[in-house]
Amino acid sequence: MSDVSYTLADLCDLAGVTPRTVRYYVAEGLLRSPGTSGPGARYGEGHLARLRLIRRLQREHLPLAEIRRRLAALDDDEAIALAGGPAGPPPDSALDYVRGVLARRGVAASGRSAVPPPAAAVALPAPAIERRLLVDSSGPQWWSADGSLTPPPERSQWERIVISPDVELHVRRPLTRSQNRAVARLLDEARRLLEEEQP
């Protein structure tokens, strides 16, 4: 390993990152501290190699925790050798990335045997058990817990309904008839209650 040292500005120029990014990576344990702080701080080839590896691994959509784990196992000479080597092929698509993540977690990419092979099921935040978004060559569809496929929900739009000068109700439309009736009853009752509170 050479004894080349860089200022923070030089390191950032060579690695294509900002000084704030370098400081963040040091704080998060992805880069070791340069030893001194302030304008006299000097960074070595190992820092530059690790920054280049971080950028490469981020392009492969790896989270920082995984990048930190991988870099922790490398000494500076190994990092320099890896940073100088060719980058691995990037994933073909976001779908390939999702498949890889699901495979690492031990989840089948399809979730059901009836799903065609090029599909990936992504769990929704809520309610994840009841529905899953299915993306395949035919476009997005909802996979329900009962095993049925339905087209994605219609586009929705939020409506702001002023009940009084300081009170609003926000409703996402479209609603079903029964939901519209319930909202109308809710508005009537809310207005009545607010009028009662007026002196």
Number of strands: 6
Read across the widest sheet, the strand sequence of neighbours is 1-2-3-4
Taken from the alpha-carbon principal axes, the silhouette is elongated
Q: pLDDT below 50 for ≥5 consecutive residues: which ranges? A: 109-131
CATH C-level class of the largest domain is: Mainly Alpha
Secondary-structure-derived class: alpha+beta
Distance between the termini: 81 Å
What is the total number of structural domains? 3
Strand content: 15-25%
- What is the element string, with H for helices and E for strands? HHHHHHEEEEEEH
The number of helical elements comes to 7
* Known CATH architecture of the largest domain: Orthogonal Bundle
Radius of gyration: 27 Å
What is the overall pLDDT average?
74
Instruction: Please give the share of residues in helix.
Output: 40-55%
Determine the CATH topology of the largest domain. Answer: Multidrug-efflux Transporter Regulator, Chain: A, Domain 2
Main β-sheet description: 4 strands, antiparallel
Helix and strand layout, with pairings?
Blueprint: H1 8-15, H2 19-27, H3 45-59, H4 64-72, H5 76-84, H6 94-104, E1 120-123, E2 131-136, E3 139-144, E4 149-150, E5 157-164, E6 167-173, H7 177-197
Antiparallel strand pairs: 1-2, 2-3, 3-4, 5-6
Helix pairs in contact: 3-5
Walkthrough of the structure:
The chain has 199 residues and is of the alpha+beta class. It folds into 3 domains: 8-84, Multidrug-efflux Transporter Regulator, Chain: A, Domain 2 (Orthogonal Bundle), CATH 1.10.1660; 94-150, no CATH class; 157-197. The chain is 41% helix and 17% strand. It contains 7 helices and 6 strands, in the order ααααααββββββα. The chain has helices at 8-15, 19-27, 45-59, 64-72, 76-84, 94-104, 177-197; strands at 120-123, 131-136, 139-144, 149-150, 157-164, 167-173. A 4-stranded antiparallel beta sheet has the order 1-2-3-4. A two-stranded antiparallel sheet has the order 5-6. A hairpin with a 7-residue loop joins strand 1 and strand 2. The N and C termini lie far apart (81 Å). 14% of the residues are buried. Residues 109-131 have low confidence and may be disordered.
